[in-house]
UniProtKB/TrEMBL annotation:
Residues where N(2)-acetyl-L-ornithine binds: R137
Keyword Ribosomal protein annotated: no
Subunit (UniProt): Homodimer.
Gene that specifies this protein: argD
Family: Belongs to the class-III pyridoxal-phosphate-dependent aminotransferase family. ArgD subfamily.
UniProt cofactor(s): pyridoxal 5'-phosphate
Cofactor: binding details: Binds 1 pyridoxal phosphate per subunit.
Species annotation: Undibacterium rugosum
Record keywords, A-Z: Amino-acid biosynthesis, Aminotransferase, Arginine biosynthesis, Cytoplasm, Pyridoxal phosphate, Transferase
GO biological process, one term: L-arginine biosynthetic process
PTM-bearing positions, type N6-(pyridoxal phosphate)lysine: K248
Pathway recorded for this protein: Amino-acid biosynthesis; L-arginine biosynthesis; N(2)-acetyl-L-ornithine from L-glutamate: step 4/4; Amine and polyamine biosynthesis; ectoine biosynthesis; L-ectoine from L-aspartate 4-semialdehyde: step 1/3
Protein name, as recorded: Acetylornithine aminotransferase
Amino acid sequence: MEFSQYNVNSLMYITPRPEIVFTEGSGMWLTDHTGKRYLDYLQGWAVNCLGHSPAVIHEALVSQSKKLLNPSPAFYNAPMVELATMLTQQSCFDRVFFTNSGAEANEGAIKLARKWGQLNKNGAFEIITFDHGFHGRTLATMSASGKPGWDTLFAPQVSGFPKADLNDIASVEKLISDKTVAVMLEPVQGEGGVIPASREFMQQLRALTQKHGILLIVDEVQTGMGRTGELFGYQLSGIEPDIMTLAKGIGGGVPLGALLCREAVACFVPGDQGGTYNGAPLMTAVGIAVLKELTKPGFLDEVKQKAAYLSAELIKLSEEFGLQGERGEGLLRALKLGDNIGAEIVEKARNLEPFGLLLNSPRPDLLRFMPALNVTREELDLMLNSLKGILRDIKGGSH
Ligand SMILES: *Cc1c(COP(=O)(O)O)cnc(C)c1O
């Protein structure tokens, strides 16, 4: 089919999209409407932790869809209970509420913290968040995000989200008052440009929040589910937060998120929280299949090994082309380009022949890599070689 035959103007215009319609995916590869293949380092935005259409997800969807789609959130269902139990066994949390997206999980975290503040902190409701943080696109989560311009877009904001600077504990301490109920952050700022919170900062935050009797919330929508090489990003710094949110990787490509908390914080009462699709067995059955893969012996060790390899190879590229190095945790990494050539690289990579390469540039001078966690060495080399060719092209004949 020709691109012009698709009536794309029947969709709301929300972002510029290339004239490509994807029709199939398998592992690290996508195929478009013309049959051209692309090596995909976006993976649905760090969502497809096992790659495109893995057999385990296909099987979970088929077998669960034959049994039960949705008995309503007013009743228990078996996959919902099983996945919650698996998640509490694998983490420091005791209770789980399932959602359909990351923003919805964060919205729930904000509500839970405010409820806890009403019960325990005299109505304290402020949640300290961070400049360049990203927590989603609902009104409250946009207000919690520290994206430039979002404070006036769709004004008025939801109030109560003062902003501190990542990795600067004094900037957090300064904002704490008797109105403060929590601090919320991503262990690695993803959309902000793959900026890790340091181990030291996470430990300082835990100590500071404990000292003031306030909650620590980690938004692990991007860093959770093995992305950093640990099952959850907070484990990198050896701390235990009070609340965590998950999405993206937990569904391996289907809409699933989760809000987790410790028993002492689980203060919702009937009427406070809910949703028609929350915890539906079709999606939670997929979550079980995904988590079983991630927790197989050796899986996360391999993620760590591949991450170390990718990191080392990106450093080599950086040295060869005079770039600014790389950063990240696990298989969430970024190459610092030095110049604002991110968009040009993304475009050139997509247009490569015989196969395209899908990359992301969250900032003009940065490339972000979020491959499937089961990416192979060969698929890493294929990407690195393609990228090298593009850099040679852009940086001229001297390399
Ligand atoms: C993607 C993302 C979200 C939003 O998740 P959605 O499923 O798109 O609503 C929230 N927080 C972080 C850290 C994210 O990366």
